[in-house]
Amino acid sequence: MKNVKNQIGLVIILLTLFAYNPTESKDNTESNSEKVNIYYFHSTNRCPTCNAVEFESQSLIQEKFASENKDGKIKFTAVNIEDKANKKLVKKYKVSFSTLLIVNSSGEKVNFTNIAFQYAKTNPERYRELLTSEILKLQ
What we know:
The protein is of the alpha+beta class.
């Protein structure tokens, strides 16, 4: 009986040691999970404004957020809503037409479509300024 109690005690100690990871802290976990995804949902046939939204968004990410993009912290993805391979993502975000979404790892989502279509073609500098500001808010 004494031997069984010792074995149970040993199992409890081992489980406690395996469950506790001293290198893992709250700050470490949060910084690793920070991510911003910019999704540009579009159809196959696009107008000049649609093309400008993709071009300006992607260019901004590659230029202004190059290191974050390389590290996977900020990512731009163009998604053709008519492509069956994208069906799951389209359904997840309930998209049925051209849409620009900015989504962070906490689940915050900003629909940036109106601003994108208002400025991307006619005033790209203003569009990049507004998009930059929104990305920084969601980081």
